[in-house]
What we know:
Blueprint: E1 2-10, E2 15-32, E3 35-37, E4 43-46, E5 52-70, E6 74-91, E7 96-116, E8 119-130, H1 134-137, E9 148-150, E10 159-172, E11 177-189, E12 192-197, E13 203-209, E14 214-229, E15 234-251, E16 254-271, E17 279-292
Parallel strand pairs: 9-13
Antiparallel strand pairs: 1-2, 2-5, 3-4, 5-6, 6-7, 7-8, 8-10, 10-11, 11-14, 12-13, 14-15, 15-16, 16-17
Amino acid sequence: LSASVSYTEPLSKIWNLVVGTGIERSNNSSLVESFNKGTDGKYNDLDRRFSNNYDFDRRSSNYKLAIVHTTDKFKLTVANNFNNDRLKQYNNNSQQGLSRSYFTYNPNVSAGYSFTKTKGLWLNYTGKNQLPSMSQIQPILDNSDQINRYMGNENLRPSFRNSLNINYNSFRILTGSYVYVGGNFTLDRNPITQNIDTAQGLNIYTWNNVTGKTNTSVNIWSGYHFKLSKKLGLSNSPQFYLNMSDNYNLFNKQLNKVNTTNFNFTYNFKRDTKTGLNFDLNFSTQYRLMKSSL
């Protein structure tokens, strides 16, 4: 269930002030019953440790204050977003509950410039708090998997993600060709990561903030589509994609850094006509390299 409302106040021909608010609420339930063998030989003895009857409630309210600048060629939006999230998990069997409340600030800046009607550059920055989930704070016990155990962490704090996106597009109507270049840069400060401890002969999973560390990710992509022969209906499109990332986690209480590099090149060769043989061929090659400090 969600609802929102916003109001725009013109300040001038090119400036507008936007204020808004919204609410969101979701309710979920989980019922799992585990039975042990009773005195009569039947599985009718409820095991309360591995049985659960939970209700999950999430209430969120958000407030927005933004200023928008708009001209024929340039558009700029600077938005201040405030979120108040309240999470609640209630155990109907033990009549005990766990709740968390987070008030966060999530800024956003977007800008776009049109060089022509078919050529433009766009930029978007988003800052967002990544909230821990109730399953990370207090997971539900499950006896269906005795090797993997999941432990909660009531001291989890939100991590903060900075994300910057840049895109450039150009299209030529007469030739039917277009080119695009884009990139994304992401920083996760004090990230929430899943960590593994195998010291007891089991896989014990916990969630922790890797304090003082930052997960990074860089994505770059580009492509160029153009016709080889208008008469034969032949066109082609070389495209490439590059991803580089650094991520932290803990393995047996030791800090581990994982570095990943992915490179993909795709070549598309296509024939599209009203008569004759049509085809669409894709040739792709990929390179992947992963390094771990442990």
